[in-house]
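Today's session is about reading a structure prediction critically. Students often jump straight to the picture, but the first step is always the sequence itself: look for stretches that repeat, for charged clusters, for runs of hydrophobic residues. Only then move on to the predicted structure, which in these notes is written as discrete structure tokens rather than atom positions. Here is the chain we will use throughout the hour.
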Amino acid sequence: MVNEPHSPARLDYIRAFVQSAERVLGEVIAEVPQKGTPKFQSSATIALQEVNVTVGITGDLQGLVNYGMDMSLALSIASTMMMEQVSELDEMSISALQELANMISGNARFFLNDLGVKSDITPPTLLVGNDVSATWHKIRAMTVPLTLASGVITVTVGLRQGD
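Below is the predicted structure for this chain, in token form.
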């Protein structure tokens, strides 16, 4: 079962998003992050970061993937992607961060396909705030911190078998 915490299949699915994030970040911002220690969430409530881009997963698997970071890192990544200094989140910088999430999640679909899993992604949603949490119904998630020179992106993956 995909939602069982230590299922080998579940770990492969999570690994697909983490490896994709490592690869895409290496290509887009020219820095390969250092992977930290993965942590299974003990409850359905997920602590979010200051800036979060969430992508839905549909198909054989259903769930969510959240890419969370602090504002400083979000502005740094947007600046690199836009090739100009970004000092606040505006329409263009938000679009850049959403595109990064699309690239990572879309790339993860190739890894999932290699595992025989058909999936699709939904358009990303960006949420900004302090002390924010989300509850992912019927999904237990795993978080994996990816450390860059300018901060940490927390990749949170919560998946279950599709209906």
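Discussion point for the tutorial: The chain has three helices and ten strands.
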